[in-house]
Amino acid sequence: MSLYGILIIFFFYVLGEVLSKLIGGFIPGNVIGMVLLFIALMMEWISPAYLRKTVAWLTSNMTLFFIPSSVGLMVSYQLIQKQVWAILATLLFSTILVMIVVGWVFQKIKK
């Protein structure tokens, strides 16, 4: 893992958070940071080689990042239990909607 790679990723995260605060939090800062990092990589302002070791380490330890959300689900068990049908309906609707949109976009791109 490279300290330089961590600093680059952290820089874009902080930059995204700052920009998110400036626009009123309409778009989450981590999303803005990822888009800015993607743009910087595509414009070749940053070499992917600087991030390769760090990204490999982060993806190999991805399960660590799901621990906080798993604990949050366990703590909120009673609330989830009360709203289980609404949650399931939302999941079903959003899954169907995503499948329709992806299929439509794929057909448009294929032409």
Task: Detail the topology: elements first, then pairings.
Blueprint: H1 3-22, H2 29-42, H3 48-60, H4 67-75, H5 77-82, H6 84-110
What's the short story on this structure?
With 111 residues, the chain is mainly alpha-helical.
Please describe what this structure looks like.
- This protein folds into 2 domains: 1-60, no CATH class; 66-111.
- The longest helix is centred in the C-terminal third of the chain and has 27 residues, at 84-110.
- The protein is 80% helix and 0% strand.
- It is extended.
- The chain contains 6 helices and no strands.
- With 111 residues, the protein is an all-alpha fold.
- It has helices at residues 3-22, 29-42, 48-60, 67-75, 77-82, 84-110.
- The model has no long low-confidence stretch (mean pLDDT 92).
Alpha-beta content class = mainly alpha
Low-confidence stretches: none
Beta-strand segment tally: 0
The sequence of SSEs as H and E is HHHHHH
Number of separate structural domains:
2
Strand content: under 5%
Keywords summarizing the entry:
111 residues
